[in-house]
Design goal:
Jelly Rolls; about 10% helix; disordered N terminus; six-stranded antiparallel beta sheet
């Protein structure tokens, strides 16, 4: 039983339990939401910490709503360029044109933001999404923000439901590839499960989030 529990923890946090994450951001397994703020665009997705198979995770449930959790924190990508997390979804948002405004909904997404300051038009974001109708590894500009926010499907309709997936992305390299600029820092990380455009319902779960050197 103890081995099974340790194996489950490893899947949920996506890390070696013998080593602490370099820079923890979302410590959901420790029953913490420190520093995460709620921001609503339309309605309110319900986010709550809950135990799943004996481990605390963040559950998101959206019913025709679009709101997310944001954490503003300057991340030095020279020191910790890799963003790590785990996620799973309970149902899909199938049949949406995710490149249109009416279909810009995702069962799960995690994104990084580079603020443009007073030059707001220079703000950049990468949305790592669990797509419902777009193939894995596809890239496209956000329907509302254009090429200021690029969408990258890490999981698509082929991914099974109710299964944990661990992700690891070199954010510095992704920014360079998608925007053609070499950026040293990002300013915020956010997560969102949203259905405000389609008016549908979806549930997802998020494990711990952290940055690492390797």
């Amino acid at each position: 039983m103890r081995r099974l529990f340790i194996a489950l923890l490893t899947v949920l946090t996506g890390q070696n339990l013998a080593a602490e994450p370099t820079l923890p951001l979302g410590e959901f397994s420790h029953n913490r939401l420190d520093g995460w703020e709620h921001k609503s665009f339309k309605g309110k997705t319900r986010y709550e910490l809950q135990a799943l198979d004996g481990v605390m995770v963040l559950k998101a449930d959206s019913q025709a709503a679009g709101s997310g959790l944001f954490k503003e924190q300057r991340i030095d990508l020279e020191k910790t360029p890799f963003l790590n997390w785990s996620w799973r979804i309970a149902n899909r948002l199938s049949g949406l044109n995710e490149q249109s405004k009416t279909g810009d909904d995702y069962a799960a997404r995690i994104y990084v933001v580079v603020k443009g300051g007073l030059a707001f038009w220079q703000t950049k974001a990468i949305n790592y999404v669990w797509a419902g109708n777009t193939a894995k590894d596809a890239v496209w500009p956000n329907a509302f923000a254009g090429d200021h926010a690029m969408m990258l499907a890490l999981r698509g309709p082929e991914a099974p439901l109710n299964v944990w997936f661990s992700e690891k992305r070199n954010v510095k390299a992704d920014l360079k590839k998608l925007f053609g600029v070499d950026l040293r820092t990002i300013d915020a990380v956010a997560l969102m499960t949203d259905t405000d455009n389609s008016g549908r319902q979806v549930s997802a779960f998020y494990g711990d989030i952290w940055f690492s050197k390797d």
